[in-house]
Amino acid sequence: MWRGNVKVRTARADEAAEFLAFVDELRQSTGGRANYPRTLAGGREGLAARFGRLIDDPERRVLFAVDAESDRPLGMAVLSQDEISVLAGTPIVMLSHLVVSAPHRRRGAGRALMSAAAGYAEDLDCDHMVVGVTAGGRDALRFLARLGFAPLSSRRVASIATLRHTLGITDHGVDGPRTRRRPLRPVRVLTRPVPMQRLRRGGAA
Predict the structure, then answer these.
(1) Architecture of the domain spanning 2-160
(2) Where along the chain do its domains lie?
(3) Share of residues in the chain with pLDDT > 90 (%)
(4) What was the pLDDT predicted at 2?
(5) Other CB atoms closer than 10 Å to residue 204's CB: what's the count?
(6) Secondary structure (DSSP) of the chain
(7) At a CB cut-off of 8 Å and minimum separation 6, what does 65 contact?
(8) Per-residue pLDDT at 136 exceeds 50
(9) Which of 96, 98, 146, 185 is the most exposed place for a label (fewest CB within 10 A)?
(10) Predicted model pTM
(11) Is the pLDDT confidence value at 205 over 50?
């Protein structure tokens, strides 16, 4: 897929470093780690391993927009097959992690990625594409609006620990496993020796 001096191709397995650089740029442009709460789970090695799994997954595709002459990656998008909702079941292509490196913007890399994503959707007979945009991605929102994307839903994220605290949850519910309680301390039974005089009065043997 070409646009001027930009083309789009599938990322290669040996380009984990480029993938990590794009993830770093996404974090910086959208407010930092708060918008990627589990991105660094397992460290950068874990993230590189995740890139390898994405490359091997037949239902996902990592696209790089690259310079047509040098093949240098300029931008990235991750595509996956999904449904628009669990109720409707309409098949869609989900586009996420759309980013173009700051020094290479306004060269058509973003449009080239979107054009390649549209072709991928057509190959799968999907009539719609949904794009995930992180909070703070104002430039991406404006770019998508110019391409005709309309708001569909709003997704928010919270840690389970925060949710349990704000809801005052003390266990997992009636049918779920209960929270772990501290074991009861063993009861110590103290016995006093019975005087021999009392045993004799009672007629004990």
Answers:
(1) 3-Layer(aba) Sandwich (3.40)
(2) 2-160
(3) 39
(4) 46
(5) 9
(6) -EETTEEEEEPPTT-HHHHHHHHHHHHHHTTGGGGSTTTTTTHHHHHHHHHHHHHH-TTEEEEEEEETTT--EEEEEEEEEEES-TTT--EEEEEEEEEE-GGGTTSSHHHHHHHHHHHHHHHTT-S-EEE---TT-HHHHHHHHHTT-----------HHHHHHHHT--SS-SSSPPPP-PPPPPPPPP-PPPPHHHHHHTT--
(7) 6, 7, 8, 73, 74, 75, 76, 77, 100, 109, 110, 112, 113
(8) yes
(9) 185
(10) 0.71
(11) no
What is the per-residue pLDDT across 25-67, written as a single tens digit (0 to 9) for each? 888 776 654 445 454 556 788 888 989 999 999 999 999 999 9
Q: Tokens 């079941």 appear where?
A: 89
- Give the confidence band of 77 by pLDDT, cuts at 50, 70, 90: very high
State how far the Cα of 158 lies from the Cα of 154, in Å rounded to an integer.
14
- 13-16: long-range contacts, CB 8 A cutoff, minimum separation 24: 13/52, 13/55, 15/64, 15/73, 16/48, 16/51, 16/52
Neighbour count for residue 129 (Cβ, 10 Å) = 18
Task: Count CA within 13 A, CB hemisphere, residue 10.
Answer: 13
Q: What integer pLDDT is reported at residue 37 of this predicted model?
A: 46
| Cβ 141 vs Cβ 159: under 8 Å | no
Place of tokens 């058509």: 108
